[in-house]
Structures are given as structure tokens and as C-alpha cells.
């Protein structure tokens, strides 16, 4: 298994996922991110702690299967992706939507 270098940690997190379920998880101090397919739990923990300067308690990772989509008579698939649910310590938080 390939080890990810510390300089590559910011590239590990692709984007925060903002869905209805992810918004509900914010109440429990859990944040959802889309990550690169090679990411491990330890890599995600190190990346979140380095980028946002918070204490990560737990990381859960899911491989999301491709969803079938149909346009007219043509059937295709949405791309597969990997997401991480990161639980932070009680005193920490991440600002996903800064005040504009």
C-alpha cells in the first residue's frame, strides 16, 4: 500500500459534501468530505488535523458505488467516489460556510 507524503495531505480532501444527511451530522460534530480513492483513515485524520487545526477523534470511510443514470434510452453510470465522515473533539469545529 502506498504511503501518502505529508506534502500531499491538502490534495487528499477533494471537497466537503453538503447533503441533507451531512447537515444533520453537523449537530453531532461530524463532517463529511469526498476524498481520493487511495486515502486511508490515518491519512484523512492527518489531513484534517493539518488543514483545519482541529483534533480528530474518529474517521469512518465509505466507498460509494456508481449510481445508474438514464437519459432517454441510454443508460450510464455516475462515477464512483470515496467519502470520509470525520468526528471532531467536542471543543473543535470547522467553518464550512464563512460569512460573506
Features:
35% strand; Alpha-Beta Plaits; 100 residues; globular; 2 helices; alpha+beta; 6 strands
Largest sheet entry:
4 strands, antiparallel
Based on DSSP secondary structure assignment, what is the total number of beta strands?
A: 6
Distance between the termini: 42 Å
Proportion of strand residues: 35-45%
Strand order of the largest sheet: 1-2-6-3
Number of helices: 2
Round the Cα radius of gyration to an integer and report it: 15 Å
Superfamily (CATH H level) name: RRM (RNA recognition motif) domain
State mean pLDDT (0 to 100 scale): 91
SS-based class: alpha+beta
Q: Spans of 5+ residues with little confidence (pLDDT < 50)?
A: none
Number of domains: 1
CATH fold category name: Alpha-Beta Plaits
CATH architecture: 2-Layer Sandwich
Helical amount: 10-25%
Structure overview:
With 100 residues, the chain is an alpha+beta fold. It has helices at 20-25, 41-52, and strands spanning 13-16, 30-35, 56-64, 68-71, 74-77, 81-88. The strands form 2 sheets. It has a 4-stranded antiparallel beta sheet with strand order 1-2-6-3. It is globular and about 50 Å long. The relative contact order is 0.23.
Secondary-structure topology with pairs:
Elements: E1 13-16, H1 20-25, E2 30-35, H2 41-52, E3 56-64, E4 68-71, E5 74-77, E6 81-88
Antiparallel strand pairs: 1-2, 2-6, 3-6, 4-5
Quick structural overview:
The chain is α+β, with helices and mostly antiparallel strands and 100 residues long. The chain contains two helices and six strands. It has one domain: RRM (RNA recognition motif) domain (Alpha-Beta Plaits, 2-Layer Sandwich), CATH 3.30.70.
Amino acid at each position: 500500500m502506498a504511503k501518502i507524503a505529508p506534502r500531499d495531505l491538502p490534495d487528499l480532501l477533494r471537497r466537503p459534501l453538503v447533503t441533507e444527511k451531512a447537515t444533520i451530522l453537523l449537530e453531532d460534530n461530524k463532517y463529511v468530505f469526498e476524498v481520493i480513492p487511495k486515502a486511508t483513515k490515518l491519512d484523512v485524520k492527518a489531513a484534517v488535523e493539518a488543514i483545519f487545526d482541529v483534533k480528530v477523534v474518529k474517521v469512518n470511510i465509505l466507498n460509494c458505488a456508481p449510481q445508474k443514470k438514464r437519459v432517454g434510452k441510454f443508460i450510464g453510470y455516475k462515477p464512483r467516489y470515496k467519502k470520509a465522515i470525520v468526528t471532531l473533539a467536542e471543543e473543535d469545529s470547522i467553518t464550512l460556510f464563512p460569512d460573506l
